[in-house]
Design goal:
Layout lengths: L1 H7 L6 H53 L4 E2 L9 E5 L5 E4 L21 E7 L3 E12 L2 E10 L1 H36 L1 H12 L16 H50 L6 H30 L6 E4 H9 L8 E5 L4 E4 L1 H18 L4 E8 L2 E8 L20 H6 L7 H11 L3 E5 L6 E7 L4
Parallel strand pairs: 1-3, 8-10
Antiparallel strand pairs: 2-3, 2-6, 4-5, 5-6, 7-9, 10-11, 11-13, 12-13
Helix pairs in contact: 2-3, 5-6, 6-10, 7-8, 8-10
Pfam families: HAMP, HATPase_c, HisKA
Catalytic activity: ATP + protein L-histidine = ADP + protein N-phospho-L-histidine
Protein name: histidine kinase
Length: 453
């Protein structure tokens, strides 16, 4: 029973089934409501006609009763109201039309006030429904009660046929609507089914995209969005493979050197200078540790790990970092007062250290650092008087493990991840880091959102 209940639950239905069921139900309710209102309007029209005609017939009969002491047979002037009857004050029949001739008084309620017609629908003689209009009349011959009645054949005779037509119409219309909606939804969802089958066939190495249907509608927009997502996934996969290859290459070099040194030393251990071997092995271990540490920072930045931020004065931070340790060339700082930003201080220190170390490595005699406010942004620049960076290399220097030839010569122990980490830190703070144009040497420009004092 529970399985059957789950299958009957709308939550287990397909989109096509749910849309068809809802549309069919709505149409069925609208048809039932519309036909019912039409029937009530038709019925109201019939009763209004009976009301108006009955009032005229009773009024004419009352006028006649006031003029003469009517007895015997009453002539019918309106064929629609063939039942006419006149009673005296004691309820005895004085006059009647042919259909009521010889019958007793009509059992219809009478208004207690003279001159005010009463309208009632009664089942007369147990045969059919009749519409009666009655009125009390005061005459010089005594009180009289007049009746005028008409069979309600239009409504009563057509009611079964009308109800049957109502049921047939609702069933046929709802079935037709359900069938049309089902086919329409199936046709509309056909591109989605095609995309689903194509997505199921696409694997990590498949270079293909889903089919975009011809009509420019929501489904085609979905297909285009899926293709954009696949392009991004392919780009991420390509970069991930390149990253793994670069990491493997960078880690293999110090590991290979370390292994070679130890193997050579172990072949003739008595002739080796073990302190020198240990120093060389320690240098390779330091390089490995640096690479692993940088990779860990990149992984945290890429994963968007939340780190607490605080308000930091960038000028004070630059002055403190520039004077923290002696450098090969002097560092000049020009920082405006009150330029603050909400940052993670340790990450910004790492960014600034990377830029200063890079500038010191390539500078000939001096390094300049400036901090200024530019509208809603804080701008930090680091410049040197070295040979500079060629325009075609200004974006490559931010690639992982990419090092220019000059950088390799000046720092053979570098990991090639410093500028990559710096740019990721800038992006994590909603900013940018670029290698900009410069009249002399290299010029790196950091822009991050500034916090008003």
């Amino acid at each position: 029973m529970r399985i059957l209940g789950d299958l009957l639950s709308p939550a287990c239905w397909s989109v096509r089934t749910r849309v068809t069921a809802v549309a069919t139900l709505i149409v069925a309710l609208m048809l039932v409501t519309g036909v019912t209102l039409f029937y009530q309007a038709l019925r109201g029209t019939v009763y209004r006609g009976l009301h108006d005609r009955g009032t005229l017939v009773v009024t004419d009969l009352a006028t006649l009763v006031r003029e003469i002491d009517l007895r015997g047979t009453i002539r019918v002037d309106d064929p629609g109201f063939p039942l006419l009857q006149v009673l005296d004050g004691e309820g005895n029949v004085l006059a009647a039309s042919d259909p009521l001739h010889g019958r007793g008084p009509v059992k219809v309620p009478v208004a207690p006030v003279a001159g005010r017609p009463e309208y009632h629908t009664v089942r007369f003689q147990g045969l059919a429904d009749f519409y009666f209009v009655s009125e009390r009349v005061d005459t010089r011959f005594g009180p009289r009660t007049v009746f005028a009645g008409a069979p309600i054949t239009t409504v009563t005779s057509s009611r079964p046929v009308f109800l049957a037509l109502l049921v047939v119409t609702v069933l046929f219309a709802t079935s037709a609507v359900g069938w049309i909606v089902s086919l329409s939804v199936r046709r509309a969802l056909r591109p989605v089914r095609v995309m689903s089958s194509e997505m199921a066939e696409i694997t990590g190495g498949a270079d293909r995209r889903v089919t975009v249907p011809d009509p420019n509608d929501e489904v085609s927009e979905l297909a285009e969005s899926v293709n954009v997502m696949l392009n991004r996934l392919e780009d991420v996969l390509t970069r991930q493979r390149a990253f793994v290859a670069d990491v493997s290459h960078e880690l293999r070099s110090p590991l290979t050197g370390l292994r070679t040194q130890l193997e050579v030393a172990l072949e003739q251990p008595e002739d080796e200078d073990w302190p020198a071997v240990a120093r060389a092995a320690l240098a390779d271990a330091d390089r490995l540790q640096g690479i692993v540490g940088d990779l860990l920072i990149l992984a945290k930045l890429g994963a968007g790990v939340h780190v607490a931020r605080e308000r930091v004065d960038l000028g004070e931070l630059v002055r403190a970092e520039a004077s923290r340790r002696p450098r090969r060339v002097p560092v000049e700082v020009a920082a405006e007062e009150g330029v603050t930003a909400r940052v993670t201080e340790s990450q910004l220190v790492r960014l600034l250290t990377n830029l200063l170390d890079n500038a010191e490595r390539h500078a000939e005699s001096r390094v300049w650092v400036s901090v200024a406010a530019d509208g809603p942004e804080a701008v930090l620049e680091v410049r040197d008087d070295g040979s500079g960076i060629a325009p075609e290399d200004r974006e490559r220097v931010f690639w992982r493990f990419h090092r220019l030839s000059e950088g390799r010569e000046r720092d053979r122990g570098g990991t090639g991840l410093g500028l990559t980490i710096s740019r990721d830190i800038a992006r994590a703070h909603g900013g940018t880091l670029v290698a900009a144009d410069s009249d002399q040497g290299a010029r790196f420009v950091l822009r991050i959102p500034r916090e008003e004092a």
